[in-house]
Design brief:
Distance between the termini: 59 Å
CATH class of the largest domain: Alpha Beta
Mean pLDDT: 96
Strand content: 5-15%
Number of domains: 2
Bound molecules: uridine-5'-diphosphate-glucuronic acid
Largest sheet: 8 strands, mixed
CATH topology of the largest domain: Rossmann fold
CATH superfamily of the largest domain: NAD(P)-binding Rossmann-like Domain
Helix content: 40-55%
Strand order of the largest sheet: 3-2-1-4-5-6-7-8
Structural class: alpha/beta
């Protein structure tokens, strides 16, 4: 099939490349000139595991074209996938301006029947609104499908080929079947439903995963108070198949471009529809609290005041495997520590450049070498569980530090036995210092 993918963020670019690899003819449309320039010159503007191999392959075989010209692209394709950004506004609403702009252009430029597939995360009801506002008035017949993505950053290519399900929201069986054919090479149940329900599946999935994280974080906080160990509790709880073992890792909580935005977005949608989603409010609040608890643990361990203290923060990305620092817990923690007078050394294997753009004027020093970042510090916070941080020589690090050798394991990821035996004061979320 000839497909235009509009927007080359991590969702659009992964979709465009994987569709091309599956044999479709793809035109990827991008209006940002510098991004487009990179793509047209064989460079990827983002890092995604496994993407560069696919990109090299499909660009060499000329199975994908990159263009800024949406009008021109629409002349050549049978399907247009929208994958533009839907950022949050300051009050938590979802900013649909880019979606509206693209939908209006498709309606205006379409000259032959076409299927429009929405990959961007849009609030329930958006598809029906777009149909009413734009597509029902288009020059040509337009079928609209909601097809939410469940791609994790850093694992997006793997997730594309191995989804748990493909959700297709459509008012027409024929168009739903057409999209199912596009994904013919992907072995997963293809679930067909109405447009608004498909949109809700995306929000409900992210909100539920965020709920699991906040829930286990509260249990971890309680474990500390009653003397239980979250490393024993969480796996045993997760072994119940009705609960499931995933997303029960306690620590600093969720960040990134999706969970924070989508939980707040769903809260706003609830409010707008006259519904008080109390559980979701608590999930958001608990997540924000974990960062404050982390700072408090470090401040207390350093005698109640961090003024003039040197603290290393290892990990700036919101999770390992990405350079994305959006809503990353580390940034809030650094901001808090700096405003309390601490001197922070920040370290990350991939995210320093992005973090620099946000942490501008607070005197943070950036290091790519964790040993250098920790040298001379009184405390270290592990904020992102990069595999390279888990394998550090913690004994050597301790020897380069100053007392009281505080280590906050913000992701419960280190081998606490090793850490304690090195002589650190070890803090975590809900782990006992020694395991039975
Ligand atoms: C998430 C979802 O997992 C995807 O299915 C979804 O498609 C995507 O959002 C999206 O809406 O586009 P992503 O944001 O890439 O993907 O990251 P996750 O791997 O889900 O992790 C999110 C955050 O939760 C990270 O900060 C991670 O450290 C944290 N987390 C995750 C925990 O704190 N504990 C856990 O047990 C799991």
């Amino acid at each position: 099939m000839r497909i235009a993918v509009i927007g080359t963020g991590y969702v659009g670019l992964v979709a465009a490349c994987c569709l091309a690899k599956s044999g479709h003819e793809v035109i990827a449309v991008e209006k940002d000139k510098s991004k487009l320039n990179m793509l047209q010159n064989g460079m990827l503007p983002i890092y995604e595991e496994g993407l560069s191999d696919i990109f090299e392959h499909i660009t060499k075989d000329k199975r994908i074209v990159f263009s800024h010209d949406l009008k021109g692209a629409l002349r050549h394709v049978d399907m247009a996938m929208i994958a533009v950004g839907t950022p949050a506004t300051s009050d938590g609403r979802v900013d649909l301006s880019q979606v509206n702009e693209v939908a209006a252009s498709i309606a205006e430029f379409s000259q032959k029947p076409m299927t429009v597939v929405m990959k961007s995360t849009v609030p329930p009801g958006t598809g029906e609104m777009l149909l009413r506002r734009y597509f029902s008035k288009a020059n040509a017949d337009i079928e609209y499908i909601s097809n939410p993505e469940f791609l994790r950053e850093g694992k997006a290519v793997w997730d594309w080929y191995n989804p748990d399900r493909i959700v297709i929201g459509s008012s027409s069986r024929d168009s739903a079947n057409l999209l199912a054919e596009v994904y013919d090479d992907i072995k997963a149940p293809k679930i067909i439903m109405d447009i608004t329900s498909a949109e809700m599946v995306k929000y409900a999935s992210n909100a539920f995963l965020a709920t699991k994280i906040s829930f286990i974080n509260e249990i971890a906080n309680l474990c500390e108070r009653v003397g239980a160990d979250i490393d024993d509790v969480a796996p045993a709880v997760g072994m119940d198949k009705r609960i499931g073992k995933h997303f029960l890792q306690a620590g600093l909580g969720y960040g990134g471009s999706c969970f924070p935005k989508d939980t707040k977005g769903l809260e706003y949608i609830s409010l707008f529809n006259d519904y008080d989603f109390n559980l979701l409010k608590a999930v958001i609040e608990v997540n924000a609290k974990q960062r404050v608890i982390a700072v408090r643990k470090v401040v207390q361990a350093l005698g109640g005041d961090v003024m003039g203290k040197n603290i290393a923060v290892l990990g700036l990305a919101f999770k390992p495997g990405t350079d994305d620092v959006r809503e990353a817990p580390a940034l809030d923690i650094i901001d808090h520590l700096c405003s309390d007078g601490a001197k922070v050394n920040a370290c990350d294997p991939m995210a320093i450049e992005n973090a620099k753009k946000i942490l501008k004027n607070n005197g943070v020093k950036f290091y790519s070498n964790p040993y250098e970042a920790c040298a001379g510090c009184e405390a270290v916070i592990l904020a992102t569980e990069w595999p390279e941080f888990l394998k550090l020589n913690w004994k050597a690090i301790k020897e380069s530090m100053k007392p009281p050798f505080v280590l906050l394991d913000g992701r419960n990821a280190l081998d606490r036995g090793v850490i304690v035996s090195c002589g650190y004061e070890y803090y975590s979320f809900g782990r006992r210092t020694k395991r039975l």
